Amino acid sequence: MRDYGIDLFTRWTALWNGDLDLVDEIMAPEFTLRYAQPGASDFDEIRDRAGLAAKIDKFRAERPGLEYSAQGVPVVEMADARSGIVARPYGARIVQDGIVVRDLSGTDILRFENGQIVEVWSVSGGAEGRSFYA
Questions:
Q1: Which one, 15, 43, 53, 114, has least CB within 10 Å?
Q2: Per-position b or e across 55-93, b if 16+ CB within 10 A of its CB
Q3: Which pTM does this prediction carry?
């Protein structure tokens, strides 16, 4: 069961890395986003898959070279095989011309039911933040 939560977080990270087809697979038809980083309040208004995919696509277009990765040890609590919570630190690195321009970290918590994400809490320092590991 724990592996399901970890794999879901991996797919969430891939979604943010531009694999927008995952939105229909991992996101519930309706969900709640709660973003606490500076400048991210417009994410809180998104409630549907198409809106999230469009926002991620625009976000990535504005930040060329952005790559997300899972970091640290995941914390997984599950009620059954496909419902629970997974929390994990993540890294956000921007590389341009082979040079790391920014190296940031944050933490995402995903609540999922019936195998799909229904609620997300996300916290980072935003563009002025720092990495947990650098």
A1: 114
A2: ebeeebeeeeebebebbeebebeeeeeebbbbbbbbbbb
A3: 0.93
